[in-house]
Each structure stands twice: as structure tokens, then as C-alpha cells.
TrEMBL record:
Gene3D superfamilies: Rhodopsin 7-helix transmembrane proteins (1.20.1070.10)
GO molecular function, one term: monoatomic ion channel activity
Transmembrane portions of the chain: 40-56, 68-87, 148-169, 175-193, 209-232, 244-264
Alphabetic keyword roster: Chromophore, Membrane, Photoreceptor protein, Receptor, Retinal protein, Sensory transduction, Transmembrane, Transmembrane helix
Stated name of the protein: Opsin-1
Topology versus the membrane: Multi-pass membrane protein
Stated family: Belongs to the archaeal/bacterial/fungal opsin family.
Annotated organism of origin: Exophiala mesophila
GO biological process terms on file: phototransduction
A cellular component annotation (GO) from this entry: plasma membrane
Length: 298
């Protein structure tokens, strides 16, 4: 059988088979500080360093027995200086990775992975400086040892749970730790506002007024910290630069400004000056020396 060429139908390609899709994962987006954030960190380094030197200098202007507030306050800005120096030089931080899912109509949801800078040095700073700051306020009010212990333990729990929240892998973990941090903060508020007010009520009117002012100032500032955390490391609403600036302003107000206010007022109010005697002020060669092996005197 002979097939004429005109009888052969040409073969055309069809589109009945869909092309195989190529899946290319989205690259990780790293959210980190820019020039503004880095410059802000260095500004705070300088301010904390100068404040520390000023506080140590102020300590030498008063008798050694009256330097308790000065030394505690100088330690606060010293630790803050070290923390900010670490952050400004690129230490004390790493990335926390998380994934955000975006839903679409008639299209499968898309997933984007982010890596946001977390400054863990900041939490180390807070875990040391905030108990010292609480100790300043507790000594000013005349809180009992039990109340001081409860306030400091609650404060440390607040900082540690905030750190755990910053590295939470799920929303449940993150906001669960955040809730515990807020509960611990309420314990601190109670100790300063209720127990502190009751303790300072036995002192003179100037001390009572000063404690109410500086404790209220501190609590207002400390209430803003968790709000900034929720907007930055919590919900990722504000940038890392904005986070750095917000915390920098709060830290400057809560440490150097608090310190100068406390010490200038303290030096003008002798009634608020706790005295360190014996070993704590004069060493082993004076009153309060520990004697081991001495015979009892008749």
C-alpha cells in the first residue's frame, strides 16, 4: 500500500501536560541594626562611662561609711557601660530565626523565614543592674530584708523569662514566657508601691516625698520596657534600630538620670544615708573584725 504524502497529518505539540513547577525557597531575611542603631549604642557607651566616673568621684566626696548609695549606683552604670560596649563592638548578640506565614485567596499560603538580631547582652545587663537599682530604692525606703529578697528574686525572674520569651520558637512559648515576666513585674511593683510606702511612712516628710517621686519615676519607666519588648522582639512591629533607640532612652533615664537624682538628693538629706560600719567600712583592722582563735576575756 502506497501512502501519499498529502494523507499524512502533521503532528503538533499539545499543552495537555502542565509543565513541572520549579520550587525555589525564599532566602532568609535578616533583620539587624543599621548605622543609626550602631551610633546610638556608642552614644550610650560614652554616657554610661562618663556617668560611672562621675558617680565614683561623688563617692570620694563623702565619708566611707556613707558611700553605699554612691557605690551601688556607680556599679549600675558600670555594668551598663560594659553591656553597651559589647553590643556596640558586635558582641553580645545573635540571630533568632522565625517563620511568618501569609495567606492568599485561591493561592496556597506562603512562608518567609526571618532572622532578627537579639541582644542577649542587654538581658545580662538588666539581670545585674535592676536588682542593684531595686536595692537603692529599698534602702531608701527602709524595706525589710524579706521584702528586699522577694523584690530582687521577682526581678531576676522577670528578666530571665523575658530572655526566654525572646528566643521562643512558637507564639505560645514566646507570649507564655512574656506573661510570666509581667506577673513577676507586678510582684516588684507591689514591693515598691505597697511595702515600700509602708516602710518609708515612718521617716521624715522629705524622705517620704523623695521616695514617692523617684520610685514612681522608676515604675513608670519600667512599665514602658515590656511595651517596647512586645513591639520589637515580641510582635516584630518596629525595626531593630527603633528598638535600640527606645531601650537607649529608657536606660539613660533609668540609670544615669536616676543615679544623679538619687545621689544629689541623698547628699542633701542626711536622714536618707544608711551607714556602713565595722568591717564593711574600715576593713579587718577596725571595729567588726572577725577574730578566730582568740581567748575569751573575763
Amino acid at each position: 500500500m502506497i501512502i501519499h504524502p498529502d494523507m499524512v497529518k502533521p503532528i503538533h505539540a499539545t499543552t495537555s501536560v502542565a509543565p513541572i513547577p520549579t520550587v525555589i525557597p525564599n532566602p532568609i531575611i535578616h533583620v539587624h541594626a543599621g548605622d543609626t542603631g550602631h551610633k546610638t549604642l556608642w552614644v550610650v557607651v560614652v554616657l554610661m562611662g562618663l556617668s560611672s566616673l562621675a558617680f565614683y568621684g561623688m563617692a570620694f566626696r563623702v565619708p566611707v561609711q556613707k558611700r553605699l548609695f554612691h557605690i551601688l549606683t556607680a556599679f549600675i552604670t558600670t555594668f551598663a557601660f560594659l553591656s553597651y560596649f559589647a553590643m556596640a563592638t558586635g558582641d553580645g548578640k545573635n540571630y533568632h530565626y522565625y517563620t511568618e506565614t501569609e495567606t492568599h485567596k485561591r493561592v496556597p499560603p506562603t512562608h518567609q523565614k526571618f532572622g532578627r538580631e537579639v541582644y542577649w547582652a542587654r538581658y545580662i545587663d538588666w539581670s545585674v543592674t535592676t536588682p542593684l537599682l531595686l536595692l537603692d530604692l529599698a534602702l531608701l525606703a527602709g524595706l525589710s530584708g524579706a521584702n528586699i529578697l522577694v523584690a530582687i528574686v521577682a526581678d531576676v525572674i522577670m528578666i530571665l523569662t523575658g530572655l526566654f520569651a525572646a528566643y521562643g520558637t512558637t507564639d505560645g512559648q514566646k507570649w507564655g514566657w512574656y506573661a510570666w515576666a509581667c506577673i513577676a513585674y507586678l510582684v516588684v511593683v507591689y514591693q515598691l508601691a505597697s511595702s515600700g510606702r509602708a516602710a518609708v511612712a515612718t521617716k521624715d516628710s522629705k524622705t517620704k516625698a523623695f521616695y514617692a517621686s523617684i520610685a514612681g519615676f522608676t515604675l513608670i519607666l519600667w512599665t514602658i520596657y515590656p511595651i517596647i519588648w512586645a513591639l520589637s522582639e515580641g510582635a516584630h512591629i518596629i525595626s531593630v534600630d527603633a528598638e535600640i533607640i527606645a531601650y537607649a532612652v529608657l536606660d539613660i533615664l533609668a540609670k544615669p538620670v536616676f543615679g544623679f537624682w538619687l545621689l544629689f538628693t541623698h547628699d542633701s538629706m542626711s536622714s536618707t544615708s544608711p551607714s556602713l560600719e565595722g568591717f564593711w567600712a574600715n576593713g579587718f583592722g577596725s571595729q567588726g573584725t572577725l577574730r578566730v582563735g582568740d581567748d575569751d576575756e573575763a
